[in-house]
């Protein structure tokens, strides 16, 4: 395999692998705009994956996609009720939902596929061939065969950006996250918007989970998301909670993940285990760099605010006898 062919295969794999991370990260951005944090994305994705396969078995790919979204919406509603209405700690709620989703997916898998039986295989995403961009060097073949879910994720990025930054709903979400008391004085219900944001996050996570088996595998296996939910959390931070920054972070992780998968079939001169660790190592390094920059900026801002609010020394009047 020539170097050009090698990197063409790597980039093609990266484009195909990034869609679930991008979709799950979009839901997390909605939630974090209200001050929330969903550590249960992985469990929601697993439930979305198993219901995606069930729905596709009944009515095809798009029924499976809808079933995954509905499953995620239910878990998102559960998280929103527990955190926004019952005032439970959202991190604890997320952990509980993550464990619930992981356990529920395994239970449904074992119930539908008893020991000794063959896994159910369903049809996958409809083929999408774009010959007019296939001729672009290196990246063209990957873009031409990236699949329907990849371009669906790009469409969702644009729509999410428009909603978050150019609609009254998005501005109110940000107002709730910036200052709850100020939002309440302006007639905005923090509880209601946090509940809606949690439901939206659950729907995105369910959709992301459904795209994992319906992209190319066509069947469900326990733990098949491989930590993509936790990667989505990190990628949202790397992308500074911006939908377009999210794409860059997801492509970075997917690039190293594609390289690790290719290393299993090609002799690259290094242990395969090292390449398998590269995606997570690269995400960790970039996350540390971004967090360091944010910390420095917040430190400078605190110093500036402290210096501006500190009292200026007053000049005492000159004693009368000294004149």
Please, could you describe this protein's structure?
The chain is mainly alpha-helical and 323 residues long. It has a single domain, classed as ABC transporter involved in vitamin B12 uptake, BtuC. It is built from 13 helices and no strands. It has helices at residues 3-17, 19-33, 41-59, 61-85, 90-112, 140-144, 148-166, 168-178, 180-185, 190-217, 228-238, 243-263, 272-309. α4 (61-85) runs antiparallel to α5 (90-112). The mean pLDDT is 85.
Mean pLDDT: 85
Number of strands: 0
Count of all domains: 1
How many helical elements?
13
The CATH class = Mainly Alpha
Order of helices and strands: HHHHHHHHHHHHH
The CATH topology is: ABC transporter involved in vitamin B12 uptake, BtuC
Strand content: under 5%
InterPro entries: ABC_transp_permease
Subcellular location: Cell membrane
Membrane topology: Multi-pass membrane protein
Transmembrane segments: 6-27, 39-56, 62-83, 90-112, 143-164, 193-214, 220-239, 246-265, 277-295
Fill in the keyword field for this structure.
single chain, 323 residues, mainly alpha, ABC transporter involved in vitamin B12 uptake, BtuC
């Amino acid at each position: 395999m020539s170097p050009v062919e090698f990197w063409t295969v790597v980039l093609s794999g990266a484009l195909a692998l990034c869609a679930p991370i991008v979709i799950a990260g979009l839901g997390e951005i909605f939630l974090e705009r209200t001050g929330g944090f969903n550590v249960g994305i992985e469990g929601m994705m697993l439930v979305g994956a198993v219901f995606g396969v069930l729905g596709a078995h009944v009515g095809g790919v798009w029924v499976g996609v809808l079933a995954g979204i509905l499953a995620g919406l239910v878990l998102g509603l559960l998280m929103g009720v527990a955190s926004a209405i019952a005032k439970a700690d959202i991190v604890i709620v997320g952990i509980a939902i993550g464990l619930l989703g992981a356990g529920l997916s395994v239970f449904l898998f074992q119930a539908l596929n008893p020991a000794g039986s063959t896994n159910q295989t369903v049809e996958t995403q409809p083929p999408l061939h774009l010959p007019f961009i296939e001729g672009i060097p290196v990246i063209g073949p990957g873009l031409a065969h990236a699949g329907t879910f990849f371009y669906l994720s790009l469409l969702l990025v644009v729509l999410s950006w428009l909603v978050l930054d150019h609609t009254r709903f998005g501005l109110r979400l940000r107002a709730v996250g910036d200052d709850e008391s100020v939002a309440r004085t302006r007639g905005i219900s923090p509880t209601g918007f946090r509940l809606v944001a949690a439901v939206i996050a659950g729907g995105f996570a369910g959709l992301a989970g459904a795209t994992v088996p319906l992209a190319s595998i066509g069947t469900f296996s326990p733990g098949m998301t491989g930590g993509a939910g936790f990667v989505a959390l990190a990628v949202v931070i790397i992308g500074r909670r911006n939908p377009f920054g999210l794409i860059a972070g997801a492509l970075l992780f997917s690039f190293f993940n594609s390289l690790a998968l290719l290393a299993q079939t090609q002799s690259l001169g290094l242990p395969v285990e090292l390449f398998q660790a590269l995606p997570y190592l690269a995400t960790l390094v970039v996350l540390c760099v971004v967090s360091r920059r944010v910390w420095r900026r917040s430190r400078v801002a605190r110093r500036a605010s402290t210096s501006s609010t500190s009292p200026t020394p007053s000049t005492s009047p000159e004693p009368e006898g000294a004149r």
